[in-house]
Amino acid sequence: FWEVSYNIAHVMHYIPVSIASAAAVRHIDELLDEPTRGADRPGASELPRISRDISFERVSFTYEGSERPVLDQFSLKLDVGKSIAIVGPSGSGKSTLLNLILRLYVPDEGRVTIDGHDIRKVTRESLRSGMAVVFQENMLFNMSIRENIRLGKEDATDKEVEQAARRAEIHKFIMSLPHKYDTVIGERGDTLSGGQRQRIAIARAIVRNPSLLLLDEATSALDQTTEAAINRTLLKVAKGRTMIFSTHRLTSVVDMDEIIVISEGQAVERGSHAELLAKNGLYRKLWDDQSHKSAASAVDDDDDDDE
Ligand code: ATP
User: Fold this and answer.
1) Which position has the higher pLDDT, 1 or 120?
2) Which residues contact 287 (CB under 8 A, 6 or more apart)?
3) How far is the CA of 96 from the centre of ligand 1 (A)?
4) Which residue, judged by its Cα, is nearest atom 30 of ligand 1?
5) d(CA 223, CA 38)
6) Whose CA is closest to 128, among 115, 119, 137?
7) What is the ipTM of this complex?
8) C-beta of 67 in contact with ligand 1 (< 6 A)
9) Where is the ABC transporter domain (predicted)?
10) pLDDT tens digits, residue range 123-133?
């Protein structure tokens, strides 16, 4: 999967930037830099399958070339087995948190631990074997749907691919295509809607049977109806796993077990949607702002579920 992501990164360099979103390009840059930055330490141990918690312990982090720290002595403990949303104003560091869990970046100070193991001291392979990620833009390749899903797990059987597609609730659609799982989709997935592409990306993640599913603005680019439908699928898929879902769209997080609000390098509020509304703090403010906006856009709705 990571090897593939890395290959994708190479391929991406030869594709005009115009077809990739800024987010995808940023991610690709991260992957390109990754082999040196995220290398294993000598004597790195194997991380057992995640069972208790993911913790940020006084983590400080500043991107190279930037003056301002994104995280400053940031501490947060996330219990496994829950659906957890990370929300906050644009630029507050939501994606950065996921990047740090994935060890695409390492903290300048402090540490990120899984079940008490500093993730810098374990092998990258064991760290990521239990994880899968879905981004806002996921590369689909000019090959069959089956092969596109199998990118998540090289040796997945046809049955596993199909099971993953069922969980992502895209199986029926695939079966309605003339060539079913053998249907070749274009590089840009032109033949598919934004929601269908995203469901294929979810199937690609689920085929890994990850204990930790990370979603970075995975439904933010979709129209509201598609977004809601995919979020319902994700909540089902997340059962029995840990899901960390970063988004700036609060309508996506209402049903999550726990919502963490981050702002200016700190986790400032946490709780359920109802608890956070009752707090009358930043979450409430963001919620009210977005409710006004969606009321306005319902009148002048220019949302588009394709690119
Ligand atoms: P958004 O909701 O806009 O996606 P976010 O909360 O996910 O934002 P991050 O993407 O984590 O925020 O970014 C936090 C800060 O770090 C921002 O100021 C951003 O401009 C900066 N930043 C992010 N990635 C990089 C990078 N690769 N190099 C330099 N600065 C970066």
Assistant:
1) 120
2) 250, 276, 277
3) 7
4) 63
5) 35
6) 119
7) 0.96
8) no
9) 54-289
10) 988 998 889 98
